[in-house]
Structures are given as C-alpha cells and as structure tokens.
Amino acid sequence: MAVRHIVFAVAPDLVLLDACGPLEAFWRAELTVAGTAGAGVAQALDRDKGVSRDAGRTGISVSSANSADSSNSASSASSDDAANPYSAASAAGSATSASSPSPSRRAPQPVAYRTTVASIDGGILQTFPGLPIVTERLDSLDDQPIDTLIVPGVPVDEHCTLQPELVAWIRRHAPRARRVCSVCTGAFYLAAAGLLDGRRATTHWREAPRLAQRFPNVRVDADPIFIRDAGRGEGDSVVWTSAGVTAGIDLALALIEEDVGHAVAMQAARRLVVFMKRPGGQSQYSAALAAQASANGPFEALHSWMTAHLRDDLSVERLAERTLMSPRTFARRYVDEVGRTPAKTVSALRLEAASRALAESRRPLKRIALDCGFGSEQNLRRAFLRRFGVLPLDYRERFMSAAAPQNAAVPEAASEIAEAG
Question: 176-227, pLDDT tens digit by residue?
Fold first, then answer.
C-alpha cells in the first residue's frame, strides 16, 4: 500500500477545529491500518494513548517556543519525516513538549497516511481560537508528492482579504494532487484559485450566500454536509467541499473509506466516537432548528407543539385547526413564512426524532416508529432508506452510542433485513 501524503495548506487565522478534526481522523485510520498490517493491537493502543500526551503528533503547540528551537527541530525532523505519520511539522511541535519520546518509543513508518500542516511562511501560526500550531513552509513541499490537498477554513466577512500567496500556491499545486478538498470557508480559497468554477460546491450554510456572491461561477449548494465533484471531463480533478467543523470529520471519513475501505473508516469513526458516516447529501440543518428559524413568525407555537406531538395527526387540516385558519389559507401562509410545505416539516421532524432515538437508545423499532409518528416499522424503514440510504438498525450500529450493549438489537436485525428485502 502506497503511503498517501495529506497536505493541510493553512492560512493565517485558521479555524483550528477545521483542521484538527480531519487530521485526527487520518491519524486514527493510520493507527487502524498499522495494527492490521501487523504492528499489533497492543502497540497501536499504546500509541493511541500517547497521542494525548504528545502534542507534537497533532502539530499543536501548547506552549511558546523560540523560533530558533522550532527551526532546528523542523530541520532535524525532516530526515525522520517518514517515521512520523504527522510529518516534520508535527516533530517541530514536539520540541515544545516537556519531554521528547525516546528512540524506542518513536512511531513506526506510516503505512497509510503521512500528514503535513503547512503555511506560506511556516513556523508558529496563530489560529482563530488563539492556540498556536507549528507549520512547515509550503514551498518546502514543492518537490514532494501530494495525494490530497486540504484547505481548512478561516473567518470571513465582507472585509475579508484572502492571503494572495496562498491562493497562488493552491492554483499552482492543485493539479499535482489526486484530489483537492476544503473544510468550511476553505472553499473561498479554492474558489479564488479558480478550482470551483463551474462546479457544485458547499460551505458553512451561513457563509454560502457570501461565497455565491463573491464567486458567481461557483454553483453553491448550502444544504449538503459535503459534496464530491468529479468535474465534467476525463482529466478533471476531483474536488471535495464540506460544511463547518464536524462536517470536516465526515469528509475525512469519506476520503478514508474511498482509500482503504469501509472497515478502516468505521474503526476510525469508532475511535473518534462519531457516526460513521453521515452521508454527504445529509442536510446541514437540524429540522427542529430550521423550524425555530421562524421563531418570531406566526408559527413559533405551532412548531413547538408539533415537536411534542409527533405521534399525533399532523395533517394540514389538523395543523390549520391549531392555528385557527382554513386549510387552504394555512398551507399558503405556511409556505410563505417557512419556505417549505407543512408535510415536509412534519417528515423532517419525525425523521430527526427517530434518528435521535436510534442513536441514544435501544428501544425496539416498533416503539420508535409509533412514538415518532411513522405508524409502522415498514414506514420507518422506507423513510430511512429514502433519506439516508441505510436501514434504521444500520444507522444505530454506525452511530455506536454507548447507551446500551451492542448486541441488544441483534434479534431485531434479522427481521429488519428480511422485511427490507
């Protein structure tokens, strides 16, 4: 298996979690693949525990370091780069740790991923939350292969000026990469480099209108968690864009699954204690939050009532009765105020409630279906297959909630698969 070089090209004022989430996902995948390749479960777990003790592995500097020390560390680390899945930049970060790992504790050569965090000037970079990170210089990568180029987000507003040197570097080096990705507002950098022209792309829903206004050649879709656009021609590169912070983890898990398979991505997700994996087409919006968006409108009380009465009759006629309107007037005014039909809101609220119940409990499907207003298990299964492409119990298994023992729903699984078929 070829080791894939993942490069995080970061800008000043980097939103730290936009980079840390995917970085951690690739590291967890590396642990999994290394263990499978024969490194041994005990050794992998030992290294896993060491991640939290060694700030250098994540490239995060938790204490100040003088530039000379950082420079010397980065220089010496470059020769050992292959020995550290988190690259020479990470080794530079370890210079700020209280103690360095002994040679016998050094991580083995990477087998799946090698990651580098780099910026235009290199060195210590201040991030948006204030925690500094140690980075390599991007021009030091000019002669190195890049498998995946990832640009994390930065705060943006109407006065935001993108770093022109980073835009130019991305424009020059993106063609070298097998795929190019952005997390959150990193899409602004990809768009400025011309990589999103004519492509469908997403970003954080709050910044989507700004992205569309600033780069009219980009087909902005604010709804999905992430989008994979393979272009139109055979030689076009693959470009992935994603929404904010947690969507960056979903993106990384999708990349891992594409590279080394579902099993490794599942293990990485389990180590991260996240759902494996939210489909890219899943909406950024919570149905309940979307309903609350009209909190100052005439349907605030109705939405609260709907959320508390999902198993009741929520037909247009019943909802119109609650608002003291005729069904026709209610349906028209609801669409005008909320932007979608009452039926779509009801469906979204019920599906979200069922998803939460599956993730947080081991209640039988029949009970969840009744409590959430689906009426029957069959209706619940159809809704999950239509929206997520998975069966409800598959959704529950992937979320890996600690709410109940993992074998609690085994007897139910066989009947679900049989009925779905």
Answer: 999 999 999 999 999 999 999 999 999 998 899 999 999 999 999 887 888 9
State how far the alpha carbon of 155 is from the alpha carbons of 186, 188, 206, 395, in Å.
9, 10, 12, 33
Least confident piece of the model among 65-69, 234-238, 376-380 = 65-69
Position of tokens 């490794």?
Answer: 264
Q: Which residue has the tokens 């998803």?
A: 355
| CA 201 remoteness from chain centre | 15
Tell me how far CA of residue 109 lies from CA of 60, 86, 152, in angstroms: 21, 11, 26
DSSP 14: B
Domain with CATH 1.10.10.60 in the chain: 287-420
Task: Please choose, from the candidates 49, 134, 145, 23, the residue with its C-alpha nearest in 3D space to the C-alpha of residue 89.
Answer: 134
CA torsion sign for 92, 98, 104, 109 is negative
Sign (positive or negative) of CA dihedral 57, 59, 65, 70: positive
The ranges of the chain annotated as CATH 3.40.50.880 are 4-272
Q: What is the pLDDT of residues 314-344, one digit of tens each?
A: 999 999 999 999 999 999 999 888 888 999 8
The sign of the torsion formed by the CA atoms of 211, 177, 257, 61 equals negative
The set of catalytic residues is 184
Q: Sign of dihedral through CA atoms 272, 276, 280, 282?
A: negative
The predicted pLDDT at position 414 comes to: 39
Q: Indicate the DSSP class of residue 205.
A: T
Q: What pLDDT, in 10s, does the model give residues 216-238?
A: 999 998 878 889 998 876 667 89
Residue carrying the six token digits 């590169």: 237
- Which stretch of DSSP H or E encloses residue 257? helix 246-260
For the domain made up of 4-272, the CATH class stated in words is alpha beta
**Which CATH class name applies to 287-420?**
mainly alpha
